[in-house]
Amino acid sequence: MAALTEAINYGDAGLELVIQSLQNESVQLKAVAYKLLHKRKEAGIGQVIAALNPYHYKFFECLTTLSGHTSDVYGIAFSPDGQTIASGSHDKTIKLWNIQTSQLISTLGEGLSSPYALAFSPDGKTLYSNNWNEIKIWDLQKKQEIRILKGHFDAVLSLAVAPDGTLISGSQDKLIYVWEQPRSGKYDVLGEHPCYVWGMNTVKVSLSIDGKILISGSAIDRAIKIWNWKQRQQITTLGNETLGLNNYAPGLSCVAISPDGTIAIAGGENQVDVWDIEKREKIYTLTLEADNKIHSISVSKDGEAFFGGLNNGIIKIWNLFTGEEIHDLEGHSANVMSIAVSPDGKTVVSASIDKTIKIWSIPE
């Protein structure tokens, strides 16, 4: 390892040796080579690094564990600048953490109703959180609640924020609301699932074809709905409702969408289905061991891999296009309830009912 680190300083020959080490059977050696090359600016190095994706996730390790919550941690979210994470816990608080120092910045609220749905505004100055059937708006500069959004009549289960600042909420009341100017308190009803609306994710404008795609998933009807939320129109339904397939028996627990808006992912119990949205066809199905349940899904920023949080504390990483298993991140001792990827794609954070938050990346 030390010899490889030294070799990078010996011109083209040393650089070539490091590049060749990416093909070595030793994961540790490849990890060292990857980290050395990642810092280089020579022409062509970027292509070498890109060719290794998404398998560079094999080199991810737990950098640190954040402890401070006194009960299960359900929700996690990155700020737009990637410097802060927000966590929501069954201890009825929201905590803000500095991702660089791993230090607690502040604690928001007391007596909240298990804030597990969290989302930052695009400018990073505002945080949205569920509080049973309400949505709280937090001013992060003042560290205080500034508004409560009311409209849903049952538990709010998921939140997403579009690049223009529009807030979208999914609830146990079966409805999806669109809040174009959240602080006004006004909303439109986008649509309805015949049962719980569990998860949703809106594609960022910079990564989607039109910046308008929203995906929502239902726990009981097992349907995945694709929306053009700006036009308040449903594009299609994937799964049980249109194809008559019992895809997620007995239920759907998490959904995600690829950055370019072309692939939908849905997980429930020990099964994950990956769909081509345009063709409306299932690409493949992953079946986990019977006692493994999937609770959370998040897609890498390059759109080449996705992460799944399991009830055994493991985070699995799969190749998005092939379903090939890339790596397991091990460290949590219980259900991984939420996963978030940093805006630059270099860091992953996870929240678990073991009361901790873990930060994963490639060690420097």
UniProtKB/TrEMBL annotation:
The keyword Plastid does not apply. Pfam families: WD40. Transmembrane segments: none annotated. Coiled coil: none annotated. InterPro entries: WD40/YVTN_repeat-like_dom_sf (IPR015943), WD40_PAC1 (IPR020472), WD40_repeat_CS (IPR019775), WD40_repeat_dom_sf (IPR036322), WD40_rpt (IPR001680). PROSITE patterns: WD_REPEATS_1 (PS00678), WD_REPEATS_2 (PS50082), WD_REPEATS_REGION (PS50294). Keywords: Repeat, WD repeat. WD repeats lie at residues 66-107, 149-180, 245-285, 287-328, 329-364. This is WD repeat protein. It comes from Nostoc commune NIES-4072.
